[in-house]
Write the structure tokens for this entry.
Amino acid sequence: MFKKVSLYTNQLKQLRGFYGNVLEIPIEASTDEHFQISIGTTTLIFRHSELQNSYHFAINIPGNQFTLAKHWAKERIILNREAAVDEIYYARFEADAFYFEDPAGNVIELIARRNVDKWSDFSIESFLNLSEVSITTPFVEEAGEKLQEIGIPISGHFQIEPDELNFLGKKDTFILLVPPKRRWYFSKKVSETSPLEIVLEAGKTIQVSVEGRLTIQ
């Protein structure tokens, strides 16, 4: 679903160092205003902002590489914990996951789909695509209606729940529609309204303003 995702940060230099040097993801383009990396088939761009912003996003990885992925991650960063554990199984998605944060406080999830296998050592080549991208907005119902109008269905609910975490999408890629001030799993961080842009593989572009208003082109 996600062809290109642009997020905004006032810590561009620190994030460039984290993704390029700590996670060792090749920086494909870089200026004083942005840098670009590939997460499998998805292009992820961080753009400079004067404002502090934060997001949650998830990366799909092969299910049979979950343990290898944790070892790979622990050599580089500290995993987040919840109730004294650093991983979780989501029966609804048939997937295992763990979480960590980057220097800007973005909550990153690696989610291993048990129906996907890759027979190799774990590396950034095991990043398949962006699985989840959060949109935090006070206008959850309005945003949900606009996303459904372009064919992105609700998953797990019969209707948009304005005070809950809503999944919109199918298979293994979802937009997470969430109101402000909801705590992210495996983190002390809470959801904050932040601007972003998503270019879908289907060609539509979703833009979210600083105030959380969603427009689609």
